Amino acid sequence: MRSLGLDIGDRRIGVALSDPEGILASTFSVIERREDSLAIKAIIDVIDQKEVGQVIIGLPRSLDGSLGWQVEKVKKFVQRLCRYTKIPVDYRDERLTTVMAQRMRRALGDKKGKGGYDAQAAAIILQSYLDETQPPELT
User: What CA–CA distances, in Å, run from 90 to 82, 114, 115?
Assistant: First the structure.
């Protein structure tokens, strides 16, 4: 089953997709968040076109693990998104994923704008979920 990872920010939404087997996450796109209705439509289009079976949302906790004001903004957006799809939605801690994404991009010599970081952060969020939920391989 293919999964969709989202890193929801005030200006942009990073999007990542898993492979059909649900093993590997890859960056997919960045959605500009000018109007929530347009951003939601773009997400629903990806869900439909790529036959996504679940959505993993990065939850922006504070460094101490507490839930801050940004969490409420993300949850309100996700509530609106859930009005248009019945597929399961799960949340994952996204602390420091943007920092990790920026470091990965710099290490690779990639100097794309912030949007590239958003998609990479979504891939990190999704990959951590996939790693947690995959049964261990027997060798």
Answer: 11, 25, 23
- Full-model pTM: 0.84
Q: Rg of the chain's alpha carbons, rounded to an integer? A: 14
10: Cβ contacts below 8 Å, ≥ 6 apart: 33, 73
Identify the residue whose tokens are 């209705």: 37
Residue-wise pLDDT tens digits, 103-136: 665 666 665 555 567 888 899 999 999 998 876 6
What homologous superfamily is domain 2-133 in, according to CATH?
YqgF/RNase H-like domain (3.30.420.140)
